[in-house]
Design goal:
Its cofactor is 1D-myo-inositol hexakisphosphate. By secondary structure, this protein is an alpha+beta fold. It has helices spanning about 15-30, 90-110, 155-160, 170-195, 195-210, 275-285, 285-290, 310-320, 350-355, 405-420, 440-445, 445-460, and strands at about 40, 45-50, 60-70, 70, 85-90, 120, 125-130, 135-140, 150, 230, 235, 260, 265-270, 300-305, 340, 365, 370-375, 380-385, 385-390. It folds into 2 domains: about 15-145 and about 260-470, no CATH class; about 155-255, no CATH class. Helix 2 runs parallel beside helix 10. Bound molecules: zinc ion.
Length: about 475
Amino acid sequence: MEPGALLVARLWTADEIASLCYGHYRNQLPKQGLPDPSREWTLMAAFIQVETTALEESVTKKVVAMGTGTKCVGQSKVRKTGDILQDSHAEITAKRSFQRYLLHQLSLATSGSQESVFSTATDAGKWMIKPEFSFVFFTSHTPCGDASIIPMISHEDQLFPTLVSDVCVDPSAADISASGISAYKRKANEEEASGTSKRLKQDDETSLNGARLSDDGRTANGKALEARDVYRTGAKCVPGEPQDSHKPGADYHCLGALRVKPGRGDRSWSMSCSDKMARWNILGCQGALLMHCLQRPVYLAGVVVGKCPYSQEAMDRALNTRCQKVASLPDGFRTHRVDIVQSSLLFHHGRDALKEKGDAGKLVPCGSAVSWSAVPHQALDVTANGYRQGTTKKAIGSPQSRSRICKAELFGSFRQIVQRLPSSQLPDSLRDQELKTYWDYKKAAATYQEAWNQLLQQAFTSWIRTPRDYLQFT
Ligand SMILES: [Zn+2]
């Protein structure tokens, strides 16, 4: 079977999901926190809830969580109180907004509401997503890291190479871009001299005029085109893994490696979005805390990517293939292979759309991040540098400075829900236990931790984790 091939018919199309998200972005998010399109771009990601009636006669789709953002804070800025948002890439702000949505849904369910997406499961104190609901993830751009290492195959790309394809642009990534372009030109000149360029050009023209290219860079007759270069990621390989060669051309990066995002100023503890999304395929999107109350993890029914440089092979490698061999997972967990599709619709506040319009040299990534969740109170949250927008240095640490999706806030919401429950309704993992800190609660989610350990041992051995003393807050 082809990678990404479908086992069941989709209840949605990629363009339908993308346009639903773009509409939500235009109509539901206020200007505050969004880019000034004359000089800034951003990334956007969202979770779409798909609901079917019993016989699939009708399907309704709605956005339940959305995030924007392009930045990540460095290690030196992280506090031990869990009140800073470390990773504000859109995929991650969307995922944390989705967890906020799920917490609200759990609070509805535990209060006896039938309106919740959860219903009681067979195990005591556990809940499950009702069978009529599923979730699709949208991202306006390929996730940073492994999925953004994309072979350049078309004629146009070779004439105007934009070498860093993802959001991980930091001062050193800018160097990569500059040196990459000069290396590219040097290589092209060498090839011109040796005559190989002429052959490649002919190949390109054949492919453009004679046959339409498919997603993976093959012509219609199945002939593979050799990529001369790759789009690059600014995320760096983690120590202990194979490292990038930085050789000019297509071998610049090593493939399949775990990567860490550059922070502002110093290194971050945040793994690339490709790595984090691969983890969702084993551990689900709900996180450790919610797993206490769920019988099974929440896996995605699909991932849709907006129009941008894209490779089906790179997406499948980064998100699916790297963890496919992980075995011995605890009950309820599995190696989920997510269905990945690209939309033909461009995000109007993304880098590619704005580059087409104006002066590409002037464009910078937008510094603020927006979170939106389908919850009744204070659905919106705008942050910059990991804190609520407008926070002064002096106000850091105050309740007003916190994002509603930071660790401390999500932990607080979770504790409120479980503390309200009589002990007969608590799951075993939360009963008769002396749990105090965030770390205690996460560690006590036994099946989640067991699955995570299997994933770490079998596939992601060099994963960088936030040190434990940064997770001991109450
Ligand atoms: Zn990212």
